[in-house]
Design goal:
- The protein has helices at about 80, 85-100, 110-120, 125-140, 175, 200-220, 230-245; strands at about 1-15, 20-25, 30-35, 55-60, 70-75, 160-165, 170, 185.
- The protein is an alpha+beta fold.
- It has 2 domains: about 1-75, Nucleic acid-binding proteins (OB fold (Dihydrolipoamide Acetyltransferase, E2P), Beta Barrel), CATH 2.40.50; about 80-150 and about 185-245, no CATH class.
- A 5-stranded antiparallel beta sheet has the order 3-2-1-4-5. A 3-stranded antiparallel beta sheet has the order 7-6-8.
- The chain is globular and about 65 Å long.
Length: about 250
C-alpha cells in the first residue's frame, strides 16, 4: 500500500531510540498516523514540528497497519508560531479538536481551513475569530452544526441575536425576549454575510456558544471535558487584549 498527500503536522511522539510517530491532518486521508524512521535526528526534527506543512509518502503492507511516513517540508510554520502563546495554545486546541474525528476519515474542508487558520494564528486579534469559526465548522462535520440562517420561531432573517440551547438554531430578538435568560448570545460577526469583525466581548460570546454545544454533544457523551489547551488559548487572548488596552492607556480592571 502506498499513497502521497499533503499534510499539516498536529504532533509527534517518541518511538524507540531514533524514530517518531507522526500525527498529521492530510487533505485526502484525514487525520493519519505513521512512523518516521530517524524522525528524532537533527535533520528531521525541524521538519517534524506541529504546524508545519509537509509532503508525505505513506507506505504499509496492509491498509490497517500503522505504516511509515516519508516527510518533506513545504512550509515551516513552527518557529513563527512558537513565538506567540496564543498561537501555541491555538494550535494545540485545533489538534485536540481534530482528534474528535475518526482516524483516516477525510475532511478536506477542515484541512483547507486548518491551513488558513495556521497562517494567522500568530495574530491574536484575528486568531480568536478564526479558531471559533473552525469550531463551528467542526461541529457541522460532527453532525451537530448550528443553523444561524433564520429565526427558529418566525423564519425571520433579521435581528438574530440569540441561539436556542435546545435546537442550536438562531432566534430573533422579539421571539427570544421572553426567554432571554435561557438563550445563548449570538455574536453578529458569526452571521453569514455580516462583514463584521469581532471585538473581545463578541469573541467571548462566540466561544461560550460553541463550547456549550461541544460539551452537550461531544465532551459529555464521550466522558471527558474541554481540552486544557482551549482554556489556555482563551486566557492568552484575554491577556493580549489587556495589554492592548494598557498600551492605549485604557482601564483594564
Amino acid at each position: 500500500m502506498e499513497w502521497r498527500d499533503e499534510g499539516i503536522i498536529l504532533g509527534t511522539r517518541k518511538h524507540g531510540e531514533t524514530s517518531a510517530i507522526l500525527e498529521v491532518m492530510t487533505r485526502a486521508h484525514g487525520r493519519h498516523l505513521g512512523l518516521v524512521r530517524g524522525g528524532r535526528s537533527r535533520k528531521q526534527q525541524p521538519v517534524l514540528q506541529a504546524g508545519n506543512r509537509v509532503d508525505l509518502i505513506w507506505r504499509a503492507r496492509l491498509d490497517e497497519h500503522l505504516g511509515t511516513f516519508q516527510a518533506e517540508a513545504l512550509e515551516l510554520n513552527a518557529a513563527r508560531l512558537f513565538e506567540s502563546a496564543s498561537a501555541i495554545y491555538g494550535l494545540q486546541t485545533l489538534a485536540a479538536h481534530l482528534r474528535l474525528l475518526p482516524e483516516r476519515d477525510p475532511h478536506e474542508r477542515l484541512f483547507e481551513t486548518l491551513g488558513l487558520v495556521i497562517d494567522h494564528l500568530d495574530d491574536p486579534q484575528g486568531a480568536g475569530e478564526l479558531v471559533v469559526r473552525f469550531e463551528m465548522m467542526l461541529l457541522d462535520e460532527l453532525g451537530f452544526g448550528l443553523d444561524l440562517s433564520q429565526c427558529a420561531a418566525t423564519g425571520m432573517r433579521e435581528d438574530l441575536v440569540y441561539v436556542s440551547p435546545k435546537s442550536g438554531r438562531a432566534v430573533s430578538r422579539g421571539a427570544g425576549e421572553p426567554w432571554r435568560d435561557q438563550m445563548l448570545a449570538l455574536p453578529p460577526f458569526l452571521l453569514r454575510g455580516s462583514g463584521l469583525r469581532a471585538d473581545s466581548a463578541a469573541i467571548e460570546q462566540a466561544f461560550r456558544l460553541t463550547g456549550f454545544f461541544f460539551s452537550r454533544h461531544v465532551y459529555e457523551p464521550r466522558g471527558f471535558g474541554e481540552p486544557e489547551a482551549r482554556s489556555a488559548f482563551l486566557g492568552a487572548l484575554r491577556r493580549n487584549h489587556a495589554r492592548l488596552l494598557a498600551g492605549n492607556g485604557e482601564d483594564v480592571a
